Amino acid sequence: MRRYFSALVLALLAATALAVPAQAHAELKSSNPASGAALDAPPKQIELIFSDVISLPDGEAVVVTGPDGSKWPVTQAHAVDKTITATVDAAAAKAGAHTLAWRAQADDGDVISGTFSFTMNVAAQPSSTAPPSSVTMSAPVSNAPPSTTPSESGGIPAWVWIVVGLVVIVGAILLVRRRKA
Fold first, then answer.
1. N or C: which end of the chain has fewer CB within 10 A?
2. CATH number assigned to the domain with residue range 28-134, chosen from the 4 options 3.40.190.10, 2.60.40.1220, 1.10.3720.10, 1.10.260.40
3. Burial letters for 154-180: b for 16+ Cβ neighbours within 10 Å, e otherwise?
């Protein structure tokens, strides 16, 4: 019985040593415009930088909504390594708070998403009268934590269930052994 118990303990140790901890999803590290930024001119491009390699999800990756609920036209969204860039039509910008909603596909296939706000101090001018040098981008670092929400959570990782099962088995064996003694 002692050999059986020793073998079970070794199996438990081997299983927990081989269990791979859950890997964290990619998360938004910084953006341009930054969360909470106050811009004097509308950005022509959105840049989202993540902690890990990402790709574009099915559907829209970047949606910018103005204070009146209207969406900015977003074109040419690209994902390269850890960065998503998208060209926006700055002529749709209005003075006030804007919301930027983003979606990205992590390397493990899960889609992550989040939103943040930035403020336009003045409304966009027609592109023919706005000088190109008037675009002021905010610093690409955001102090506010990103809002990431996995669209589909896989629940509790399998390795946790394996460890729990092994602990229950060891507990049952110890209980039976104690009753026999």
1. C
2. 2.60.40.1220
3. eeeeeeeeeeeebeeeeeeeeeeeeee
With CA atoms as reference, report the closest residue to 75 among 139, 85, 32. 85
pTM strictly above 0.85 = no
What does the pLDDT average to over 135-141? 42
In the chain, domain spans: 2-22+157-180, 28-134
| Model confidence band, residue 14 (pLDDT cutoffs 50, 70, 90) | low
- Pick the more confident residue, 1 or 61: 61
**Cβ neighbours around 84 below 10 Å, total:** 24
